[in-house]
Amino acid sequence: FDWYASKVFMQEGIDASIIKEAMAAAEPDTGKIIFPAHVQKGLYAGLMKDEVTNVVYNGIPTETMDEFVYEQNRTAIRESLGYTEDDYVVLHLGTVCARK
Length: 100
Fold this sequence. Notes:
By secondary structure, the chain is mostly helical. It contains five helices and two strands; from the N terminus they run H-H-E-H-E-H-H. It is elongated.
């Protein structure tokens, strides 16, 4: 875990011992520790009580997005944002950081 923490958190002053201490202190009545997958939760196994954890997948609900797209007027939205039909619009969703 120490090596993993050094690569994931990459913050000055935050090391594996701080993460271990914080996770061990977590209680169900004070909140939850959320993981984006069971695999990642497994990397922290034994560091906190299972009842303080939850997995919320970080996938994109494409059905919901498709429904939204079909209900919208693409030209009107582009115009409201100051773009023409000939402009290229690039959207980046995610985290840009050294570890990725």
